[in-house]
User: Fold this.
Amino acid sequence: MELGRKVGHFFCLLKRKYVWLFFLAPAVAVLISIVVFPLAFSLILSFYDWNIIRAGGWSWAGINNYRTILFQDSYFRSSFKVTLFYLAGTVSVQFGLGLVVALILDQITRKIIGFLRTVLVLPITMTPVVVGIIWRLMYNPDLGMLNYFLSWFGFSPVNWTGMPGTALPSVMMADIWEWTPFVALILLAGLQSLPREPYEAALVDGASSWQTFCYITFPLLSPAMLVVLLIRVMDSFKTFDLIFVLTQGGPGMSTEILNYYTYRYGFKFFHLGYASALSWVLLVVVTIICMILIRILQSRGIYAKRT
Amino acid sequence: MMNEVVWIKVKKTILVAMAVVVFVVILFPPMVLFLTSIKTELDALSFPPKWIFQPTLENYEHIFQFSPFMKYLLNSLIVASLNTGAVLILGSLAAYSLARFRFKGADNIAFWILSVRMMPPVAAIIPIYIIMRNLHLLDTPWSLVITYLTFNLPFAVWLMRSFFREIPREIEESALVDGCSDFSAFRKIALPLAAPGLAATGILTFIFSWNEFLFALILTGSKAVTLPVGIIGYMKETGINWGYMTAGGVLALIPVIVFTILVQKHLVKGLTMGAMK
Assistant:
């Protein structure tokens, strides 16, 4: 009887200690089997040559795929440049414009905030493929709105997405249209949650509005800014739908960011070994950049380990 | 004094004018999409664009009659619903565990889950394609239901974790003292209290599944094609059928817009995975 109670007590303690595991295990098991396992598989595959539509199986390639990517593949290099240009261009413009929009709305929205917000969030959750269709329609050289507006001022039509010089800026402009509202929405929320006291103090001290912005708004808003930056940088690497619909990476390789280049190697040329190596290079680049941003965020207490 | 009042009024007017410009820029492109979808082919192809025309629903009728649009719609609905269900079950359990129980490594696990969300999908698509091919799941809704967990599950765990954290711990502790098991404390107390947050998470998950394109493009071929891939199918080598494509686009957007308005209150929190309110 006594022993029975002790055993029961022991199991009770065991249960208390490991109950978290029963809650957590299913999700972790799923993520391991659909993320960790596939990534490990692709890491192995990246050391082989394998073309899925050609006869013959895997043949060992050692580090050849990686060597080719890093030292010989001039297309990779150009794609890498396009990626960095795309990332820097879109994120910086979205950030600047988004901040301006947020500051404007913060001044006037109190009464009509509901309606303005509804409009602002539309591009964010819109199906990206449909955003691509919308902009393909706008950019259409024969019947698009942009050329129509140009014709008002007597300009001749431009083949926006069809020329190497304008294709990349065109895709970037669509991306900026899609994601500037996101930056504005988050920064607006940040602005509206700022404490009022520092502003009152600044007013009393006779600070100019520029000084108020530089010394109060900017530092207080920096956590929100960092969150926005992290999310935009991380998602910018994933841009696929817009490019697929607008240019398919062309003309030439002018809009082919790494994401798209990897996709083409894997599913247009079916060089799955080489594409796996490319995807690992991309993964490492993304991870390094995101880790740096996350460390900065964590040092400010956001996404922090201990909260 | 008078001058100051005038100046404030001028400033207000300028700000309002700028805001109006912003909203015209946001609303104009989708409006063009909608207008094109209710034009006849002749009107749609005219340049300069026609602003006054006889609206027609023929594009909408045609995509249902002459293309498998209904099938795309159903596939999208099936994939997004099943995926959302799975995400809510798995995600709420894991989020509760990370929000409530104290154990070694909890933070590292949470952080690892967050890092999964950062992975570019193209990195996972090659192995997942091979695995799905070997499991004979290509071109079935299941391949997408499973694959969409890669980005939706980490998202949901983080977001729901922040919702669970907002519930005072004391309520569940008193239930535990009253002899409630951990699971029933979760099911009967934490879940109902976090219900609005969970609903928001579910809606966002649904939208992300509904919108997804890359995985659907690669993993489906004909039977399980979802809306985004189906609509792109109206873009042929021989030319684009603008009527079909814009009508399909408008129909794809309707549920997204409705859901977005429903979830608006939680959108900032949702889109930053709980980092901001």
Summary: The first helix of chain A runs from residue 2 to 45. The CA atoms of residues 249 and 255 of chain A lie 5 Å apart. The longest strand of chain A covers residues 48-49.
